[in-house]
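Let's do one together. I've listed all components of the complex below, 441 residues spread over two lines.
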Amino acid sequence: MAAPLFLLAPPRSYTSLVNAMLGQHPQAFGLPELCLFNVDTLVDLWRGSNTEISENGALVRHGLLRAVAEIYCGEQRTTTVNMALAWASVREQWDTGRVFQEIVAKLHPLVAVEKSPSYTMSVKRMQAMRRAFPDARFVHLVRHPVAQCKSLMAINDGAFALKVEAFELGEDYALLEPQIAWHDINLNILDFLDEVPADQQLRLRGEDVMAEPQRYLREIARWADLRDDDEAVDAMMHPERSPFACFGPINALFGNDPNFLSGPTFRPHKPKLPPLTAPVPWRTDGGGLYPEVVALAKEFGYS
Amino acid sequence: MNAPPSSSKPPRKRLSPSPENPETGRRDPSYLSPHQRALRTAMIDAFNAKKARRFLERNVKHISVNRDLADGIKFLFDEHGRPPANAPLEDVIEERRLIEYQIVWFEGILLELRNRLIRVKEVEDYALEMLSRASPDE
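Okay, and this is what the predicted structure of the assembly comes out as:
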């Protein structure tokens, strides 16, 4: 079966858009966030496990239910999502790698494209992806730390930073600090990619894709051994055509960032790149980026 | 656009103060010292209090009383509460059925409102508790 392509990035790094764009390639199929590798066994997505709590409750399952409804029934309605629940029920004791393999086999010869930012919270989760798909390709999507952190703090006051223990600890205080999440999650990805052959990985700056989408989407397609002609590139410029680029039926509404679901159309733009040395907007004490964060950002090509 | 070379590198050091749980690979606050855990808990409490405060600000609405609840109920009785002297039995039965149906309807609404009140009280109690535990300068 065609090896899948995974996007690896912290949340708020253009992953929803890029995933949907790549997924619109004529030889690919963009999936919603399946979150399968968050747990070992499919049933644990419902009940949690001894080592992992069931993250986000029911929301974590919406992507999988919508995907199964679309792939096996051709549409996403309450009835087909109920069918997807029955499908999952029959496979509840399966290893999640095996579940993903079945979905990928069903999509063959299309290349499955998926991203779940929660995978990057742990190197072990990403290693599980590679065990299931040794030939998978990985795109490490990076974003400027200040822009990403600002976006992260705008969602539920930075609740994600709490989830990944991103806080600054002083003698008598603890302060939520999203740049720690940016740094540590990107290190998780780098640690994981150390184990991946060079020809199976690619690093891209999200800002570059936003500013010159045709150029970079064409190069990704070429790297992934997909067609890179004008027709294929033009198809990728329309993420809004994805069957998952909208809210789902009432019993599986999400499966992706709600902001993307309510406005998936792509418009090329050149994101501003703030300086790495200025005070960061989410701190009230005038503090800036940590030296480690600046060093990593420079490694990614930001200056 | 570059594919980074794969090479063995020294372990990369994380910035999160919570050590890694070797079983899950995720940062785990249970490995912090008691003092660090207390600081972390205070931070989370402040975060939740702020969240509850914002939720309350968005959702407190003016409550108005509906004074027209009984307007739709039709009675066969006159202004003295007496039924018409020649009221047909069919009409009396129909009126009885209508009133029983409306009672069932009102009982359903009452039950739903009681359930909602329980949930709203839980949110209110939790929010007040969070506010009382938040530090003064939050």
